[in-house]
Amino acid sequence: MANQTSGETIRYFSFLGIVAALFCVLGVRLFELQVLQGNEYREKSDSNRIRLVETTPPRGVMRDRHGRLLLTNRASYSCWGVPRELWNDRAGLELLSGAMRKNTEFVRQNMIKPFRSTFQPMRIERDLSFGQLSAFEEMRDRIPGAFLELEQQRYYSRSLAAHALGYVSEVSKDELEKFPYARVGDLVGKRGLERIYDEALRGVPGRRFSIVNAHGQEIADEDKLDRIEPIAGKELWLSIDADVQALAESLMTGKIGAVVAMDVRNGGVVCMASAPTYDPQVFAGRIDSKEWNRLLTDPQKPMLNRASQTMYPPGSTIKMAMLTEALESKTITPAFTASCPGHYTVGNRTFKCWNKKGHGSVNVYRAIEESCDVFFYKVGMMLGADGINRALARYHFGTKTGVDQTSEADGLIPSEAYYNKRYGPSGWTKGFIPSIAIGQGEVLVTPLQLCAYACAVGDGKVWKKPFLVSGVYDPQTKTLQKREAPPGEPLSCSPENMAIVREGARRVVWGGGGTARRQQDEDCPIAGKTGTAQNAHGDDHAWFVGYAPYDDPIVACCVLVEFGEHGSSAAAPIAKEVMRAFVLSERGIDNPPISANLATAE
Amino acid sequence: MSGRYQFPDPWILISVLGLVGIGLLANYSTSFAEGELEFTHFYRQLLWATIGGGLMIMTVAIPLRVFQSFAYVIYIIGVLSLIGVMFFGHVEMGARRWIDLGAFRLQPSEFAKVTTLLGVARFLTDFPRDIGKAWVTIVAVATCVVPMGLILVEPDLGTSLVFPMVMFCLLAWAGIPFWHLVLLLTPVLAVLTFWHQTLHIATLAAIVAAIFFSRRRLVPLALAVIVFLSVGSATPHLWGKLHPYQQKRLLTFINPEADPLGSAYQLIQSKIAIGSGGITGKGFLHGTQTQLKFLPEGHTDFIFSAWGEEFGFAGTLVVAVLFFILFVRAMRLAQRCHNPFYSSVAAGGACLITAQVLTNLLMTVGFLPVTGVPLPFVSYGGSSLLNMLTLSGLMLSVSVRWREY
Questions:
Q1: Mean of pLDDT values over A441-460
Q2: Kind of pairing, strands A343-346 and A187-189?
Q3: What phi and psi, each to the nearest 5 degrees, are found at residue B122?
């Protein structure tokens, strides 16, 4: 290459020049660090150590539709330790474990050991009790590897809507895959809204470096430049009305079941109560393992959200859907009547009407009003299995509503294939149809699905998707990100046919023979449908679905009382009270008096 | 040896031996700090240095022509070993980088640096008349990208970043046209500057000017602009489409060491260690940061900080000067030797070592992000030391045989 002189020489000197320049940069930097700032760094290194502290932001709060706090935070102390220092300081670790009332060997082997080579502090104990706090303060000089940090813990101002809000607890190692942004020991949402909106709620942790002396006391903050402020978690603004929720929960006290109410205008969930409930405060700090075990083993399953996670046969509440489909598919005309002698026979099976004396001649309005079973046995046979499935699918039964809740149940629309699978190759017979047509047997729904159904009948045009979060508010930037109500899906029913169904529902309360005629209330005129679901395990389950006011509904409600026997007496009064509270509150009348009606129903 | 052969270059020899010696001293100190009564680190490093010394002598003894003839074979063996690691590698801290040989582990990515260097050097000197044609540049780039990609998926960002740097130096040294070099830099610059609009536009202008003044016509000019704009506009778009946690996951996937909390802490401790060394240092085995173990990774990536604390500015200057001498001598050698392959090996070797040195040293003083590149000859680690000493053997071999054609 020696003969290509000029090009090669340029290259040679370019290489030398660039590298020499970089070495000069290095040399100047070393001169700056070691000669100019040497004394400064010498001081830092002499007696002090640098500690990295992760600062956890407060978790976002949750508010109801009027801005009232449902869930907030309270300050508490956590104890942190530098694993590398604690691993090498047996005496200090012993004192620390003593103060925390923990077993030294457990802390050493199970908590510290896996991280023994790291300098990044880890949480030793969360939410210290007063005893732990004072024991630590007494000995902190002798435990230089540990320190206290002020952190926020969940605080349930009113202990409402425990199931819907969900809870947080420490993320386990196996769950880290699901929470890629979390680190071992972080609190993450495990259920309900806490789980679904975990990432928005948690905020972004910050960090700072502090200088501590040999006794572990903080002297100063290291470089402000290296400090990263935490970003507070975002607030959830819910469609829930705290007063309505509180009323629903108080009405369900001592019962088993669920109450769901939706705002008919947009599908927002106004209340979602599941009974029996539990005190979410249990999860807020350190979980008491006794209380935890009690909750898990309680035969009444208080942790279960009966509103969206449990499936029941819907009973007669489903009849409005059957009538809609029968009219819409022109299987029957509005003038159709059926005669009810009190029973109905298919093949060799006889199905009874709840009214053993029979209803006589029943038209479409009376069929709903008096909940005539024979009418729907006959209509069901005319619709056939496919027609019944269409009727259920029209109101989105059999699929998740898509509400922002965890582990929502699907419900079940039994197809012929389902019966063949369950009862053998030729399991399906027409004999199943009458039961399904009146919501007994294999068809299963959740209270939330029934509420969305009542909401759709009340609206008359659109099935609306229920949701809880109507806005996400960022306290940092003071901006509200409104969540538009989900579009829902049109019922595609003619207004005339819907008017018939709605008139039937009105007569359930306001007609002479209506099954819920005791719920007449001029302040809040409701319409709806009662239901009683046969239960293999005991007394029947009581249902009521409805909406109010019936001429221009703003609220829909579904009440389930397990073992309540009759929808008309056990469920309808509760639904009426809940809807009344919401309607009056929306009209600006606060604190509606609990009517005497309820007392008689109880 | 007849008169054609010379004694190995004494400057290179002195630099290498001096740096290995400094590495041993520093490892003795960090061994001491770890409270190892048997000085495991130190003795292991001593063992590797001895074996590496033997390898270096062997490399000098073998005629360089042998390496030239087998350069492609050596390159393929290097790539195969990287593929082997993907299947049989030992996983540690989420990265599959090592092949377990019982008593010790080898890191094929270290050896791939030298095998790739030999392969590319051979290719660039096999077609002297075609240098300047696009296909030569493209094939040379591809030859580098294959091992680099294999290392990137291990994942080992630090090691894989060394490859494009060495590739760029080799291409520049081989004398490919200036606009090829600019075009190679274009996508890198586009990605690096996308976050700052003015800088982004200024960079584009500089690229256009550079190509224009190297008297090139429309095609390369248009090519550079298209590449720059498309890469530059795609980067924030693609990046912005990711969730913050996906971005973080991607970052930690590419670079597991890039834990922002951890590396900021390392950096502060590193600066305190180096700075507190002052002019003359705290004395051997008396560095408080090192000895109190506040300095993480003190024997591997941050060994320079431990050295700087105990030996001060005087000590760090010695290290920097030794590395600079090594670079200058190797480049001088590359410039004067007759055989173009020998020249490429010497220049590539000098750049390979210096790229790692600067990446590591500028990281320990806080000028570059923490990427996990070891300091050649000094950091603890058998694979790195063996590889670096073999490479030194190659450069010394060039100094013995520089008159060969």
A1: 94
A2: unpaired
A3: -65, -45
Please tell me if residue B312 touches chain A, with a CB cutoff of 8 Å: yes
Q: Do A199 and B274 touch (CB under 8 A)?
A: no
Beta-carbon separation of B273 and A16 below 8 A:
no
What DSSP string describes A528-557?
EEEEEE--TTSSPEEEEEEEESTTS--EEE
For the record, the structure tokens of A88 come out as 């090498």
The span from the CA of A51 to the CA of A133, in Å, is 21
Q: Do B265 and A33 touch (CB under 8 A)?
A: no
Contact between chains at A45 and B331 (C-beta distance less than 8 A): no
Residue A596 banded pLDDT, cuts 50, 70, 90: very low
Kindly state the tokens that stand for A558: 């579904």
Look at residue A2 in the predicted model and tell me its pLDDT: 43
**pLDDT for residue A334:** 94
The answer for residues whose C-beta is within 8 angstroms of residue B163's C-beta and 6 or more apart is: B113, B116, B144, B145, B147, B148, B151
Under the phi-then-psi rule, with left for phi > 0, alpha for psi from -120 to 50, and beta for the rest, what region is A387? alpha
Residues of chain B positioned with their CB less than 8 A from the CB of A207: 261, 264
The per-residue pLDDT for B268 is 79
Residues of chain A neighbouring B131 (CB-CB closer than 8 A) = none
**Interface contact B172-A199, CB threshold 8 A:** no
**CA A430 vs CA A29, A382, A389, A415, A420: distances in Å:** 89, 11, 14, 12, 12
> Cα dist. A482→A59, B100, B125 in Å?
19, 56, 65
From the list A298, A307, A208, the residue with the least C-alpha distance to A252 is A307
- pLDDT in the model for residue A602: 33
Instruction: Give the count of beta carbons closer than 10 Å to the beta carbon of residue A101.
Output: 11
Q: What is the pLDDT of residues A32-80, one digit of tens each?
A: 999 999 888 887 776 566 777 888 899 999 999 999 999 999 888 999 9
- Interface membership of B121 toward A (CB under 8 Å): no
Q: What is the pLDDT of residues A274-301, one digit of tens each?
A: 999 988 877 766 667 788 788 888 888 9
Which residues of chain B neighbour A44 with C-beta distances below 8 Å?
272, 275-276
Tens digit of each residue's pLDDT (9 = 90 or more) over A382-396: 999 999 999 999 999
Q: A15-31: b or e for each residue (b if 16 or more CB lie within 10 Å)? A: bbeebeebbeebbebbb
CA A502 – CA A500 distance, rounded (Å) = 5
Give the HSE-up count for residue A68: Cα atoms under 13 Å, Cβ half-sphere: 15
What is the 3 state secondary structure string of A370-439? Answer: CCCHHHHHHHHHHHHHHHHHHHHHHCCCCCCCCCCCCCCCCCECCCHHHHHHHHCCCCCCHHHHHHHHCC
Distance CA A185, CA B306 (A): 33
User: Is B65 within 8 Å of chain A by CB?
Assistant: no
ipTM over 0.90: yes
Size of interface A-B (CB pairs under 8 A): 135
pLDDT tens-place string over residues A487-516: 889 998 999 999 999 999 999 999 988 899
The Cα of A298 is separated from the nearest Cα of chain B by a number of Å equal to: 38
pLDDT score for B248: 64
Burial grade of B255 (CB within 10 A; 0-12, 13-18, 19 or more):
buried
pLDDT value of residue A593: 47
> A52–B245: do the CB atoms touch at under 8 Å?
no
What is the model's pLDDT at position A439?
92
Nearest partner of A540 among A511, A563, A520, judged by Cα: A563
CA distance A449 to A193: 18
Q: Are A50 and B312 inside 8 Å of each other by CB?
A: no
**How many Cα neighbours within 13 Å face the side chain of B377?**
27
Is A30 within 8 Å of B264 when comparing Cβ atoms?
no
Residues in chain B predicted with pLDDT less than 70, given as ranges, are 1-4, 33-38, 93-94, 102-103, 215-216, 242-263, 290-297
